[in-house]
Amino acid sequence: MVRILKLSQLSDAERAKLQKRAELDIDNALKVAQTVIETIRERGDAGVVDYVRRFDYEGATVENIKVNEAEFERAFQLIEPEVKTAIEQAFRNIQEVHRRQMPEEIQLAEIEAGVFAGEKISPIPNVGLYVPRGRGAFPSMMLMLAIPAMVAGVERVVVCTPPDKQGNVEPVSLVAARMAGVREIYKLGGVQAIAALALGTKNIKRVDKITGPCSVYGAAAKRLLFGTVDVGLPAGPSESIVLADESTDARLAALDLLIEAEHGADSAALLVTHCEQVAIAASEYAQEYLQKLPDWRREFCEAGLAAYGGIILTDSLQQSLDFVNEYAPEHLELLVSNPFAILGKIKNAGEILLGNHTPSSMATYAIGVNAVLPTGSFARSYSAVSVYDFLKRSTLAYVTPEGFEKLKETTKTLAEYEGFPAHKLAIQHREILL
Ligand SMILES: NC(=O)c1ccc[n+]([C@@H]2O[C@H](COP(=O)([O-])OP(=O)(O)OC[C@H]3O[C@@H](n4cnc5c(N)ncnc54)[C@H](O)[C@@H]3O)[C@@H](O)[C@H]2O)c1
Ligand SMILES: N[C@H](CO)Cc1c[nH]c[nH+]1
Ligand SMILES: [Zn+2]
């Protein structure tokens, strides 16, 4: 049985543990990350290679950690036709969604007569994408990161993704990268990837921003390198809430509970409902569906559901909604009778999926919405990856002679008040010079 927790009977400590998810366990990874970062800072490429050898591929060398043309070609030969077709449909939908996000390059509006203000949008020049590969292959994540970066017009897109024990990058991820136009890929995972991208080495030029989901090791490295590089949204261990009411088909609730649970023992998958019958039935069905998974995925589910997940039984739909908003899940499925009726009440969620035909696996692979999402309650302030992660805004202003007349006294007065005489002088002299 998947555990059922009665919300009103949880202690403050139990609620806090649920709320914190696996973020509780980052301390050990921080120690490891600190050592790896310091070594790479001192020894550059040689340090990077040492850690690839230690954690991923014993045969790594400075020369073979960059994916070469022959490896891309081999990946195209290896990909199964039906997987290629699936990647192509996913590619089209992700590209369409992200193209629609692109703002106008220049926006300028007349704020008062002769005073124009707005912004100019430009791509971030150098971006590093982290595509995980520990407890699964993630070509979908390659698409979710590389497509918005390319649509945004990033000049240099670099990818790091871990190699397997034989030194190979997962081939479908290479095909996905090439379809998106990525050419520079390093076989690096975890801390060594984030450190190489953030600090730069002789062979790997540093980037301005790193984004992409990762396990606790990459997350620890990002935390330590915050300040050296823009580390993007916190996208850690997968998590989800399936919200159910009395109308919910408990089989669907159970199936969807397992979607994010199977990522790892650190995943947090919750079913939240005020309906006890649905809770009990979903718990039983989940037990049944768990038997259909391979042992290692089932064990992930069991461990994660026991530590950070399970079924939360509330007193009312309103209490369920309050819990959802407090928790701020990465994925939220509204498996209720009328999802649109409660949509307005959802305040914090990385992704909101409406109704029985929109499971989070479909959003992850095929719909086109971005599946790189904030975790660990950061959906309170962060958003899904989008073209905006790869763009920056310069404010833009243009003042005509008429506008200058309108603003000059205000500018001088405030410059005087704040004690900045050169600020004031620039206005006073213009009155004479122009
Ligand atoms: N939030 C999102 O949008 C999102 C999307 C996809 C995946 N995810 C999450 O991303 C995570 C991906 O994790 P993963 O493990 O599959 O891949 P990963 O690529 O993040 O981790 C593998 C790397 O971890 C490093 N590593 C492993 N053991 C280590 C150790 N003992 N010490 C130091 N380094 C070590 C290795 O270098 C390896 O390359 C999962 O938690 C998954 O749930 C989140
Ligand atoms: N559900 C993950 C984001 O939490 C993304 C993913 C990719 N592949 C499988 N799942
Ligand atoms: Zn997933």
Automatic annotation (TrEMBL):
Q: Which residues form a coiled coil?
A: none
Descriptive protein name: histidinol dehydrogenase
Give the matching NCBIfam families: hisD (TIGR00069)
Which transformation does this protein catalyse, written as a reaction?
A: L-histidinol + 2 NAD(+) + H2O = L-histidine + 2 NADH + 3 H(+)
| Top-rank taxon | Bacteria
Under Enzyme Commission nomenclature, its number is 1.1.1.23
- Lipid metabolism as a keyword of this entry, yes or no, is no
**According to its UniProt entry, what is the function of this protein?**
Catalyzes the sequential NAD-dependent oxidations of L-histidinol to L-histidinaldehyde and then to L-histidine.
Question: Sorted alphabetically, which InterPro entries does this protein's record hold?
Answer: Ald_DH/histidinol_DH, Histidinol_DH_CS, Histidinol_DH_monofunct, Hstdl_DH
Keywords, sorted A to Z:
Metal-binding, Oxidoreductase, Zinc
What GO molecular function terms would the record report? Answer: histidinol dehydrogenase activity
Q: Which cofactor does it need?
A: Zn(2+)
Similarity annotation:
Belongs to the histidinol dehydrogenase family.
Alphabetical list of Gene3D superfamilies matching this protein: 1.20.5.1300, Nitrogenase molybdenum iron protein domain (3.40.50.1980)
- Give a single Pfam family match: Histidinol_dh
The protein's gene is named hisD
Has UniProt tagged this entry with the keyword Metal-binding?
A: yes
